[in-house]
Amino acid sequence: MRNRFLIAGLAAMAMSAAALAAPSGFEAAVFEDLNHFRDDPAAYADDLTGYRDRFDGKLLIAEEGEDIDIMTNEGVAAVNEAIRALRSEAPRPAFVWSDMLQRAAADHVAVQSRSGAVGHYSPNSDPGIRMRARGGGPYVSEVITYGHQTPPGVIHQLLIDDGVPGRGHRFSLLRSDLRYAGVACGPHPHYRLMCVILMSPTRDGTAPPPPQRSTP
């Protein structure tokens, strides 16, 4: 019962927000860079080499177009590891844009832009609940960045995955079964900008069809 009322509340909040089906220029550029990576992960690894020159110890110095320096956990070591890992990766299918995934991502941006919180969860909410509030299903994978203010910087942060055991964000961006994505970005009171990317095997987050069995 509690979740039902929560879903209804999220849906009402979403309906009162501005329509976000059409991505902003920034969000469209993040989506384009994401597919640029998926098209050839091995070649995209070369795009990360410029990061190495921007470190002062573990501090990533802001480049033109970004407002803040970012203190990392691993420094250059994480960049080098990402470059080595991506050079052995094969191309993945391009993502198809999903309005529903984008709207659910935007709902999370709206909450954290006010609260200043970080992470995938807010009180009594998670990516699956947000998708249900939008009329979809919970079969989604979510990645979030904070602080990077250029579209390539958003994707680079997720691929380097500094300080994340197992590089879970990178793994999500490489999953071939995820075919649809939506991107929402907005202001954050502590990190200036946040971006949420929701991905799913289906356009609306419902369960993908079972694999077809080959007949003998």
TrEMBL record:
It comes from the Bacteria. Coiled coil: none annotated. InterPro entries: CAP_dom (IPR014044), CAP_sf (IPR035940). The lineage of its organism: Bacteria, Pseudomonadati, Pseudomonadota, Alphaproteobacteria, Sphingomonadales. It comes from Sphingopyxis soli. The keyword Signal applies. Keywords: Signal. This is CAP domain-containing protein. Residues 82-193 form the SCP domain. Residues 1-21 form the signal peptide.
